[in-house]
Amino acid sequence: MDVVEAGLLGVRAAVSQLARRETPLRFTIYPMVHLAEPAFYAEVSRRLRDHDLIVAEGINGPAGSHSTVSRLTQAYRLASASERLGLVGQTRAVHEVGVPILWADMSGAEFADKWRKLPLVERAVANVAAPLTGLYLRTFGTREALARQLATDDDTDIDEWRPELGLDRLIKDDRDTLLIQAVTKICEERRDEHIDVAIVYGAAHVPPLVAYLMTALGYVVIDAEWVTIFDY
């Protein structure tokens, strides 16, 4: 399932709605990226106002525990300062639309603890790669080059998911589990409510979530629409 598509004119995200006969509870999934035109985030915020609950991505916890996350996301913060790219970084303000939010993610302390258990070489490579990637994008990057990366994986600087790497498991598998647990709990506790739950999460996490909703919970995609992330 393509949730982010890089085409001839730009990059788009597929916003999909899923439902099932047995319950009025519906889910609308918004695949997110860390860099986009302001109009993309504004459009997502506008749509979120029509939902009853938002399930969101975001490492939470004391400020000190965010240092690891901050280092790993340097690439996007540096790239957002590029006048050539003309893009901005995603912030939590996207979700702040007056709708209740459930942060289905790790705490900062949990992430930092798991990070410390990764092999030293993986941590070293990630700490070096993030700022170097950001500086390259800020100085030489183009929207076309960024599009190729976003269509592959917007969550890390690693082009392909490799489960043997602890960093990939931490950023993807471990957080996928938390997201699926949150969605399962909503299905169990609110299945009889006429509500539309928005899931606003990184694009790389969307395919396993959709697969789980369809195969384990019996949901089907009833509608989908492309939303422009940025034009070339």
Please provide a written account of the structure.
This protein is an alpha/beta fold and 232 residues long. It starts with a strand and ends with a strand. It has eight helices and nine strands. It is 42% helix and 23% strand. The chain has helices spanning 38-48, 67-72, 74-79, 108-116, 120-140, 143-152, 166-190, 206-215, and strands spanning 4-6, 10-20, 23-32, 35-36, 53-56, 88-89, 101-103, 196-202, 220-231.
Notable characteristics:
single chain; 232 residues; alpha/beta; seven-stranded mixed beta sheet; two-stranded antiparallel ribbon; 23% strand; globular
User: What's the number of helices?
Assistant: 8
Order of helices and strands: EEEEHEHHEEHHHHEHE
Major beta-sheet overview: 7 strands, mixed
Q: Specify Rg, calculated over alpha carbons.
A: 17 Å
Content of β-strand: 15-25%
Write down how many β-strands occur, each being a DSSP E stretch of 2 or more residues: 9
Class by SSE composition = alpha/beta
Mean pLDDT: 86
Shape: globular
Terminal CA distance reads 23 Å
Helix proportion? 40-55%
Low-confidence stretches: 152-164
Short synopsis of the structure:
This protein has 232 residues and is of the alpha/beta class.
List the helices and strands and how they pair.
Blueprint lengths: L3 E3 L3 E11 L2 E10 L2 E2 L1 H11 L4 E4 L10 H6 L1 H6 L8 E2 L11 E3 L4 H9 L3 H21 L2 H10 L13 H25 L5 E7 L3 H10 L4 E12 L1
Parallel strand pairs: 3-8, 5-7, 5-8
Antiparallel strand pairs: 1-2, 2-3, 2-9, 4-6
